[in-house]
UniProtKB/TrEMBL annotation:
InterPro entries with a match to the protein in the record: ArnR1-like_HTH, WH-like_DNA-bd_sf, WH_DNA-bd_sf
Protein name per Swiss-Prot or TrEMBL: Transcriptional regulator containing HTH domain ArsR family
Source species of the chain: Methanohalarchaeum thermophilum
Superkingdom assignment: Archaea
Domain ArnR1-like winged helix-turn-helix: 21-81
Pfam families: HTH_45
Amino acid sequence: MSVDELEGFILSNNKRRDVVSVLEKEGLASFSVISKKKRIPERILESILEELIEKDIVEQEEGDFCLTDLGEKIVANSHEFDSG
C-alpha cells in the first residue's frame, strides 16, 4: 500500500486514528495507556494494534508500542491527525 492508502486506512476508522494520535503525542505508550487515554476496550484495541503492526505503521518494543518510520511519515504528511 502507498503512504496515501495507508493514511486513508488509518483515517477511515476513528479508533485507528485515536491510537495513532496517542503514539504521535507520547512517542512510546503501553497497551493500558492507549486504552485508558482513548477509552478503547481491550479486545478492540488488540485488534487495531494487530492491524497497524501488520501494515508496518506501529511496532512493539519491550511491551510498549510506537510508530514505525513509516507511521511517522504518514502522520507528518497528513493534516488530519490531532495530538491526542
